[in-house]
Amino acid sequence: MVNKPNVTQQVLDYFIKQIQNGNWKIGEKIYSESRLTKELGVSRTSIRAAIQQLVGIGAMESIHGKGTFLRSDDLSSLGLGKHNKKEYDYVDLSSLLEFRLILETDSCYHAVKRATKETIEKLHYYLQKMKESIGSPDEFVQFDRLFHEEIIHATGNKLLERSLKNAFAQKEERLHDFNEMFGYKDGIYYHTLLLKAFEAKNASRAKRIMKTHLQKAIDDIYYENNTDAEEQDILEQI
Q1: CATH class belonging to 7-78
Q2: C-alpha to C-alpha distance for 124 and 33, rounded to whole angstroms
Q3: Rounded CA gap, 33 and 45, in Å?
Q4: What is the CATH number of domain 86-236?
Q5: Are the beta carbons of 11 and 31 closer than 8 angstroms?
Q6: What is the rounded distance in angstroms from the CA atom of residue 69 to the CA atom of residue 191?
Q7: Which of 22, 23, 167, 238 reaches 20 to 30 Å from 192, CA-CA?
């Protein structure tokens, strides 16, 4: 399929231009999300996704309550000069998330009912590793995946477990795409809530959180894929 040009990539190109032209200095705070959203005419989702890509290679650092700072002007990890802008297969990614929404929502309820002490310990471990992997996309995706697989494993249903693992194996690239587009914050937030629900043995709450987590991901993809054409026009003029 032919994918729509990615707005996030165009925002990233704008960031790269600011860095390479010396408009943003190492150690300085970059423009706020509000200012960037207003000046570029794009969504906060696109702004945050572009920032996360630069955080991932160590070029930027986001500090809660303070903003985002430029830490390095080394952008070599982005493969500049290859002229191969990333385009995302939104339909395939949405299909994976919809499959997971159907499979994991009810499974999460049963997993809480059957969870053991070992289940809780593993979820703790995977969540901690996710936090430690912020800025390292491959590791973050790996532990995110293991967190969800452990929940399905707790159901004791081998068919469910095989189904999720097969989906992850077949759509590995889509997991990385989602992290690349939307970063780490939501993953940490919802996984923390899920762990607390498991600890409290609150199956209904865990089910609601899982549903909200995956539905938000689907909504984010829909919004990103259906960003107004006006965003494209504005960015092309910059």
Answers
A1: mainly alpha
A2: 32
A3: 10
A4: 1.20.120.530
A5: no
A6: 27
A7: 167
Domain locations in the chain as residue ranges: 7-78, 86-236
Query: Which of 21-35, 50-64, 67-81, 94-108 comes out lowest in average pLDDT?
Result: 67-81
**Sequence-distant (≥ 6) Cβ neighbours of residue 117 within 8 angstroms:** none
**Burial class (CB within 10 angstroms; exposed 0-12, middle 13-18, buried 19+) of 2:** exposed
Sign of torsion, CA 138 127 50 177? positive
